[in-house]
Design a protein that fits this description.
The protein is of the alpha/beta class and about 180 residues long. The chain is built from 6 helices and 5 strands, in the order H-H-H-E-E-H-E-H-E-H-E. The protein has helices at about 5-20, 20-30, 30-45, 60-85, 105-115, 130-140; strands spanning about 50-55, 55-60, 95-100, 120-130, 145. Helix 1 packs across helix 4.
Length: about 180
Amino acid sequence: MQLPNFHHLHYFWAVAKTGNLTRTARQLRVAQSALSAQIRQLEEQLGQPLFARAGRGLVLTEAGKIALVYAEDIFAAGGELVATLTEGRHRRQLLRVGAVATLSRNFQRSFVRPVLQHDDVHLRLSSGSLEELLAQLHAHELDLVLSNRPAPGNDDRQFRSRRLARQPVSLVSARPMPAFCFPVD
């Protein structure tokens, strides 16, 4: 297995951030054709297209989205390496949390708020279905999953679920609601 060329990966990462080959080439001070060739070489090495055309811009394919996550990790680690060796700073821990898309954003914020107070922790919060997130957890792409239901039992994967809190529920309406619809405890 051959590792990706970091120049190719950096060019891919830069284009993924802007979505525009011409603008990125100008920012990096390289010819657009050279930038395009570097990305094409990376795509050939990975065996999949990373971008698809969308009008005058580019959008990430599914493979491109996956590659972008890895590229961001790689360049963040590179930045930390330089900071550690030149400034003596300690390496930040990466905490990868997945949250089911149906989970309250307020609950997610309150859960991660204590983590955000630590300068030595970098939090990556991603969203998806419980099945998608558990697959990522199983593949060690996530460290934990926040869900509003326990993980299903499975012979292949053993997950442990623990209730952390109960979420309050609000009913919001644009029209007045009859009082008899909602029994009061």
